[in-house]
Write a structure and sequence with these properties.
about 240 residues; mainly alpha; 11 helices
Length: about 240
């Protein structure tokens, strides 16, 4: 592959990776923080009904984030396959696994809308029962997000390894990507095994992903070092 071509692929990968951030933040964090009243399910339900379009938009945003993640992985594969093709494939595999899980997890939010918008449910269940069901659906979605977190961590492991080995992307970014991977995995185990442990490690280990995004968007790759790697592969 020509250096200019791989540099273009790196920029596209960076832009796609960057696009994931607002989609994920809006779909998973912002709307929840805006509409959810802590400990008050009645107020939460009223907020959702009063801001139905915003709630629906968060579902669409989360689904788009999953699809953009696949596209990001495809372009990351294009720029890292020269280091180790088999390892690069794992980046794509993990995202292909996580994308359908992410989209199916949004069915919990759609079920909430069905409960709130369909009068038949109100006729068959008491208000308290509906609130309990909705609360359970929100909890299921939260568990789903932590299962998704496994794969958002795991795709960073081969990515970090390949960045360290590449030579045309700074090794320090690869190291921080592996730290980010560990943060996601620790969060998964603590959430399921120690539910009273409220500290989120991934909130403190995300720097590697930001560094990767910024480097790909601004710098792309070190073309000269990529040429050396390509030439050494040809000689072999």
């Amino acid at each position: 592959m020509k250096p200019n071509t791989i540099k273009t692929h790196a920029r596209i990968a960076g832009l796609l990776y960057l696009f994931q951030i607002p989609l994920g933040v809006f779909g998973i964090i912002y709307v929840k923080e805006s509409l959810f009243a802590q400990g008050d399910m009645v107020a939460t339900c009223n907020n959702i009904l009063a801001n139905e379009f915003l709630f629906r938009l968060s579902i669409v945003s989360s689904i788009l984030c999953a699809l953009v993640t696949i596209a990001t992985a495809a372009y990351l594969y294009k720029i890292l396959q020269f280091v180790n093709e088999n390892q690069a494939k794992w980046i794509v595999i993990f995202t292909l696994v996580v994308a359908p899980i992410s989209m199916l997890n949004e069915l919990n939010n759609l079920a909430v809308l069905l409960l709130l918008k369909t009068s038949d449910f109100s006729a068959q269940f008491s208000t308290k029962q509906v609130e309990l069901i909705i609360s359970a659906l929100f909890n299921l979605r939260e568990y789903g997000l932590h299962i998704i977190g496994i794969f958002f961590g795991l795709w960073l492991l081969p990515m970090g390894y390949l960045v360290i080995k590449s030579g045309y992307i700074p090794k320090v970014i690869g190291v921080f990507l592996i730290f980010a991977c560990l943060g996601y995995l620790i969060d998964f185990f603590t959430f399921f095994l120690f539910p009273d442990f409220k500290i989120s490690c991934s909130e403190y280990t995300w720097l590697g992903e930001v560094m990767m995004v910024l480097w790909l968007c601004i710098k792309g790759i070190d073309v000269e070092k990529f040429k050396k790697l390509s030439e050494s592969r040809i000689k072999i």
